[in-house]
Specification:
Layout lengths: L1 H39 L4 E9 L7 H14 L2 E10 L11 H13 L4 E4 L5 H11 L2 E4 H12 L3 H15 L8 H4 L19 H31 L12
Length: about 240
């Protein structure tokens, strides 16, 4: 009768309330995890690392990736995850296989990453293909290291040398004016000494390279003259050498 219908409706209401509460709890847990992740990476670029190893590689992937994590940390890049693939040879277009590329895209979306850091050097065509496939900024190990040098350069000569190295590295990548390569300007991998952005076309890049090479030669001549004066005065010299 009506009492039975009311009881059944009450049970249904209770069941829906329980489900709704569980749903809210799950949302709060997910929000909490996302908030914690945001706090941990505040002020850093969220990135995902990729290592593709070949049979004749000298270094194990774990060792190489640990070094990459240290480099990334120095550049204020937070590596949220790492994708490793062992192949007989690099894929000429994507370096990794198509399946791993799909995994990279999925993981980067799940982890809210905006940057892909490859643990090996890429060709300009590979950077373009991967960037277009993932719609993310793509850099390799050399570009990451150059970014660190750009941050650490303090002397005039040091800044000139870093900018010259960056321009020579970027010049072949400026040959293909696409939206993928426009992501190279500014930010990680596109930072010049003194926090200036490397936003430059090929003609201006060549002109700037020529000018920098002349300035470095002048700086080298001046340094040689200063060294000769110090030698004549018997002034002791100390050099500190290290890897970034």
């Amino acid at each position: 009768g009506s009492d039975g219908a009311c009881a059944e409706q009450s049970e249904t209401d209770d069941y829906e309330q329980i489900d709704f509460k569980s749903f809210i709890d799950a949302l709060e847990d997910e929000f909490s995890r996302r908030t914690i992740g945001t706090i941990e990476t505040e002020g850093q670029t969220r990135a995902i690392a990729v290592h593709v190893s070949l049979p004749d590689d000298d270094m194990e992937p774990d060792v190489s990736l640990q070094e990459l994590r240290e480099l990334a940390s120095t550049a204020e890049v937070a590596l949220m995850d790492a994708i490793v693939q062992r192949r007989r040879r690099y894929d000429p277009r994507y370096v990794m296989g198509k399946g791993k590329l799909d995994e990279l895209l999925l993981r980067s979306m799940q982890l809210d990453c905006e940057l892909v850091v490859f643990d090996q050097d890429l060709t300009p065509k590979q950077v373009r293909a991967i960037a277009e496939a993932t719609d993310m900024k793509v850099i390799d190990r050399s570009m990451l290291i150059l970014d660190i040098f750009a941050r650490r350069a303090h002397t005039r000569e040091g800044k000139l040398a870093v900018e010259l190295a960056q321009l020579k590295y970027l010049l072949p990548r400026l040959a293909q004016q696409t939206s993928a390569f426009s992501r190279l300007a500014g930010g990680i991998g596109g930072r010049g000494p003194g926090e200036t952005k490397l936003e430059i076309d090929r003609r201006r890049a060549r002109d700037r390279i020529t000018a920098l090479e002349k300035q470095l030669k002048n700086a080298e001549r001046q340094r040689r003259n200063r060294r000769q004066r110090r030698t004549g005065r018997s002034v002791p010299s100390v050099a500190v050498v290290g890897y970034t």
